[in-house]
Amino acid sequence: QYIMGIETSCDETAVAIIKNGREIIANVVASQIDSHKRFGGVVPEIASRHHVEQLTIVLEEALTKANLEFKDMDAIAVTEGPGLVGALLIGVNAAKALAFAHGIPLVPVHHIAGHIYANRIVAEMKFPLLALVVSGGHTELVYMKEHGHFEVIGETRDDAAGEAYDKVARTLNLPYPGGPHIDKMAQAGEATIPLPRAWLEEDSYDFSFSGLKSAVINTVHNAEQRGEKLIPENLAASFQESVIDVLVTKTLKATREYNVKQVLLAGGVAANKGLRTRLEEAFSTEKVELVIPPLYLCTDNAAMIAAAGSIFYDKGQRAKLDLNANPGLDITIHNQ
Ligand code: ATP
Ligand code: MG
Ligand code: FE
């Protein structure tokens, strides 16, 4: 079985071909980071235009690498949402045109389901499982009792973890996206600066990062006003420790309460070295299996969309040719 995945929800134009749901045959990602860098973030109009320019090139590259043709594809899986509407539309319309022209079934995929299913490429999923999703727009704990079942047991009430990383990075004058830069600086620093941790209510699996972000900004401004010199590496380390403390503690608590067989890490922030290390330490004494995907499967890619698409294809899910991009698509009502 060959599934083609198409992903254009944000600033990566990506096409992948996956064999039997788990084996990567081609995985092409064209990043637009350089075009958005000078604006300090993703500019939606620019993102859409880049997707238009890049998608045919990326499609051809994927087929060439795989040495396959459209007629070899069993299905085309495409990100339906969430994301930037103009960016999503490019992928959705291309997928519809290709599905129609070549008579291939079309399978819609939720972007975050894709992030979670990136794990399927490196490990067999064992249910029930818990996924810690940490990305540019999402921070949530997702409980899955079987394929296609997504129950969000906790989510951020304000900023996503990645968003907090990017905003803190901007305060420290680091280029976009800031996550990887903060990560590197944190490794060179020490967490000596006291910063808050938002635990919220005792029984809540929700997150909140805007207070932490503001505390970092205030710390920088106060130091500037007093003419004190802050060690940016120490601030990065302190911020990162605060984020990781909360993520790891809540994930561990949910793992025990829900008695899951497996814990999956997903999303762009899953590339964070500090988070990966701390999770591994925390779970080394637990009975549950922890899966952490390689870096290229954490940030946006189409292999994850194809991996999820393969499961939904097997379940018989098909989109009609009136499929529309849905920027606010809900994971709990999707792909069931
Ligand atoms: P979403 O998946 O929620 O729709 P997105 O697709 O824009 O959002 P991803 O591509 O999954 O987000 O992740 C991008 C985010 O990951 C950015 O905020 C980026 O700063 C962050 N990130 C990437 N690498 C690291 C790292 N090493 N440490 C921390 N954050 C990182
Ligand atoms: Mg991106
Ligand atoms: Fe993403």
Automatic annotation (TrEMBL):
Any one GO CC term of the record: cytoplasm
Catalyses which reaction(s): L-threonylcarbamoyladenylate + adenosine(37) in tRNA = N(6)-L-threonylcarbamoyladenosine(37) in tRNA + AMP + H(+)
UniProt superkingdom: Bacteria
InterPro entries: ATPase_NBD, Gcp-like_dom, KAE1/TsaD, Peptidase_M22_CS, TsaD
Pfam families given in the database record: TsaD
The encoding gene: tsaD
UniProt GO BP: tRNA threonylcarbamoyladenosine modification
Matching CDD domains: ASKHA_NBD_TsaD_bac
EC number: 2.3.1.234
Annotated Gcp-like domain residues: 23-306
PANTHER family: TRNA N6-ADENOSINE THREONYLCARBAMOYLTRANSFERASE, TRNA N6-ADENOSINE THREONYLCARBAMOYLTRANSFERASE, MITOCHONDRIAL
Intracellular or extracellular location(s): Cytoplasm
UniProt protein name: tRNA N6-adenosine threonylcarbamoyltransferase
Binding annotation for Fe cation: 111, 115, 300
